[in-house]
Design a protein that fits this description.
The chain has about 130 residues and is mainly alpha-helical. The protein has helices at about 15-65, 75-80; strands at about 100, 110. This is Type II secretion system protein.
Amino acid sequence: MAFPINNGRPARGFTLIELLVVMSIIGALMALVSPSYFKNNDRARETVLRHNLAVLRQAMDDYRADHGANPSALQDLVSNRYLRELPLDPILGQRDGWQTRPAEDGGIGEVSSGAKGAGLDGSDYGSW
């Protein structure tokens, strides 16, 4: 029941205390939920990175099987239609951030992420 205020009209709205209580409950819930949300977001990026590395390595293996040599650049995989485009490195947010290591017999032998830092498992992104 609303209590009458001036001129006999009922009071409308919430008191300051009621608003503060609701805001503190919302804040407490956000403090509990947000860390797991951001951790899941990082986990999703890492899963995409692992998948994109597997796709790149499979395309390099297919190129090597067809041509008998390693590709000289990642762009060769696109120009020879082993990939439609270079996959995105989700940690860096770019397609040209891949790090390559040369093979002993020439060309690209290995590819990894150029992102600095470590994943949730503690290993460096560049070692994946």
